[in-house]
Amino acid sequence: MADLMWWQKAVFYQIYPRSFADGNGDGIGDIPGIVNSLDYVQDLGIDALWLSPHYPSPQFDVGYDVADYTGVDPEYGALEDFKRFLDGAHQRGIRVILDLVLNHTSDRHPWFVESRSSRDNPKRDWYVWHAGKNGTHPNNWYSTFGGPAWERDSRTAEYYYHYFFKEQPDLNWRNAGMKKAMWQAVRYWLDLGVDGYRLDAIGTIFEDPGLPDHSVPETLIELGLAAYHAGSEAERKALAEEYKVLFKYQHDLPEVHDLMRELRALVDEYDEPLRVLVGETDEIAFYGNGHDELHMNFNFPLMRTERLSPAWIRANQKERLLALPPGAWPCNTLGNHDSPRVRSRYGDGNASHDGALARLSLALMLTLWGTPFLYNGEEIGMTDILFDDVGIFRDNLGVWFYNAAVNELKVLPAEAVRLAAKFGRDKCRTPMQWANAPNAGFSPEGARTWLPVNPNYAQGVNVAEQRDDPGLCGRRTPMGGAQARRLCPHAVVVRPRMDAYSKASKALFEVFDFDAAAEGSGIPALLRRLGELGIGFKDLDTRQSSLEEIFVSLVSERG
Ligand code: GLC
Ligand code: CA
Q1: Which end of the chain has less neighbouring CB within 10 Å, N or C?
Q2: CATH says 110-161 is which class?
C-alpha cells in the first residue's frame, strides 16, 4: 500500500494546549511547553498532531471562541514560538494540523464588535441578525449549550444568533466578504507550512433562513437529563432522534456541502505535502463523493456505548465501512477534549480491569481500519476527575448545567454539582501528568494550575514512571513500541469481560504478534505493518465483508 497518503498512515495525537505542558511556569500550558515535549511525542511514535485552538481568545469556551484567526494567544506564546513548534515538529517528521472554528467567533472578535455597532455597519451582515417577533426571540430555536439561540443586543434592538454560547455569535456564511476574510486566514497558516485542519462543528455552519419553529414539546434540558438517565441503547437512540428534530433547522443544511467543496478546492491548491481536512462530524455526507469534500470524518458512533464489546465494534465497523463512498478513508477515535477519558468511560471502576481495558482500547484504535486519533494523556491511562465545587469549574458548559439544574429543575446543590461535573468537560481537560512530582510535573511547585491536577499522578499515572518501568509500560515509551506488543497478555485479563469473545477479537489480539521486528520501533511501524497487511485485502472487498472476515483474512495473510 505504498500509495497511501501520509495522513492515511499516520497516528494522530490531539494536544490540548492549555493542559499539555507549561513552559513558563504560570500554571497554563503553552507553546514553549509543547516545544519542550516534542521528543516525548516523537518517542511515542506519533506522526501528526492536532492542536486545539491556540488563537487569541477570551477563553470563554477555552479557545473555541476565537478573537483573531491569524494570531497566537499571548498566554500560549508568540508567533515565533508557534514557528519554532512547527519547525521542531516537522524536523522530527511530525505533521501539524490546526483547529479551524468556522461556525462562530468570539463576541470580542473585532468583526463582531463592528457588526454589533450599528445596523448599517459594513460588517453587520457578517453575522446572523434578525428582528424580534411579538416582542421576543425571532423563533423557538435553542442554543446547544442551553437557553435560546438568540441574544438581544440593546444597542440596535435586534437579535443575533448563536448555536453555542452567546459569547460565540454565529458567522453568516452567505456573506461573501466574510467568507473571503476567513479563507485568507485559512491560507495564512497553510502558507506557514501547517499540514491541514480539524474543522470544528461544521454541521452548524448554516441554518434555515426562513427561521421555522421546531416542533419538539420537551425543553432542551429535559431531553438532556433524559439522555443522561437513559437505561438502554434504544432509549438513547430515540432521544438522539428527538434531539435531531429539535435542531433540524440549525444543522447539516445542504449548503454546507458546497462550502466544504470550496474549502477542499482551496486546500488542494497546496501540495508537497498535500494538506488534510478532518471534520468534527460523524455524517458520512461530509466525505462528498469520496474526493471532493473532507478527507476524513470521525467515526463518533463507535464511542457511543458504555462497553466496547466485540459485537459493538463489529456492528459499528460493518455499518461504517459499508456506508463510506468509494475511496473514502475511515477515521477512528475514542476520546477528545469534549468527552470522558477513555479509561474512565470504558472501564468498570476496577483498577486492574481498567488498566487492561485502557490498553485494549488503544490496541483497538491502532488496529481498526483507518486513521486513529488519540487524545493527550490517553497513552498513560489518565482518568476523569469530577470536581465537587462549581468554583473550580472552568468549562462554562458545566457552570450552565449547574445553574440550570438548581434554578430550573430545583435539584439540590450537592447533587447538581455531581451531575454538572459529569456533564461538563473539565473532567477530561486537567493538566498532563508528566511525573510523580508537585503539580504532576506540569507546572513548577507552588504554581497554581488553571485546573487542578488529578492526584492520581502519585499512583503511577504519569509519564516518567511509566517510561522507566518496563513491567508496567514497556521498555522504551509509555504505550509505544514494545508496549504495543505487550497488549496481548493484558487482553487475557480483559477477555472474560467481553460479552462475546469471537474470532474477530482473537485476530485483533494476534495482530500484535505479527512480527517481532515491530518491537521497539514504535506505533508507526506497527501501523505500517497493518497498512502492509492491507495488501492482503486485495481479494477481499473490505466494504462488502464482515469485520470478522477481514480480520480472519488479515491473520491468514501473515501465514
Ligand atoms: C466543538 C468543540 C467544543 C466547542 C464547540 C464550540 O464541539 O470541540 O469544545 O465547545 O465546538 O466551538
Ligand atoms: Ca504557561
Answers
A1: C
A2: alpha beta
On whether the CB atoms of residues 323 and 543 are closer than 8 A, the answer is no
Determine the Cα–Cα distance for residues 383 and 461; give it in Å rounded to an integer: 9
Q: How many Å lie between the centroid of ligand 2 and the Cα of residue 435? A: 17
Q: Measure the CA–CA gap between 378 and 374, rounded to whole angstroms.
A: 7
- Give me the amino acid identity at 132: G
- The pLDDT score that the predictor gives to residue 360 is 67
Ligand 1, pocket-test mutation among 162, 164, 199, 280, most atoms within 8 A of CB: 164
Concatenated DSSP letters for 291-321?
Answer: TSS-SEE--GGGGSSSS--HHHHHHHHHHHH
Ligand nearest to the CA of 201: 1
d(CA 31, CA 38): 11
Mean pLDDT of 419-426: 95
Ligand 1 proximity of 368 Cβ (cutoff 6 Å): no
Q: What is the pTM of this model?
A: 0.86
Task: Give residue limits of the domains in the chain.
Answer: 110-161, 498-558
DSSP states of 109-145 = SHHHHHHTT-TT-TTGGGB-EE--BTTB-SS-PBPTT
Name, in order, each residue with C-beta under 8 angstroms of 350's C-beta and a sequence gap of 6 or more. none
Q: In which residue are the cell numbers 490517553 written?
A: 378
- Quick one: which atom of ligand 1 is closest to the CA of 336? 8
pLDDT tens digits along 142-178: 999 989 999 999 999 999 999 999 999 999 999 999 9
Residue closest via CA to ligand 1's atom 2 equals 200
> In whole angstroms, what is the distance from residue 278 CA to residue 32 CA?
26
**More confident: 287 or 349:** 287
Residue 379 has a pLDDT of 83
Secondary structure (3-state) at 379: helix
CA-nearest of 327, 335, 535 to 427 is 335
β-pairing verdict for 158-161 and 12-15: unpaired
- The 10s digit of each residue's pLDDT in 97-139 is 999 999 999 999 999 999 999 999 999 999 999 999 999 999 9
Regarding beta strands 95-101 and 48-51, do their DSSP bridges make them parallel or antiparallel, or are they unpaired? parallel
C-alpha of residue 458 to centroid of ligand 1, in Å: 31
The atom of ligand 1 lying closest to the CA of 65 is: 12
d(CA 491, CA 509): 7
**Alpha-carbon dihedral angle through residues 325, 144, 423, 242, given to the nearest 10 degrees:** -70
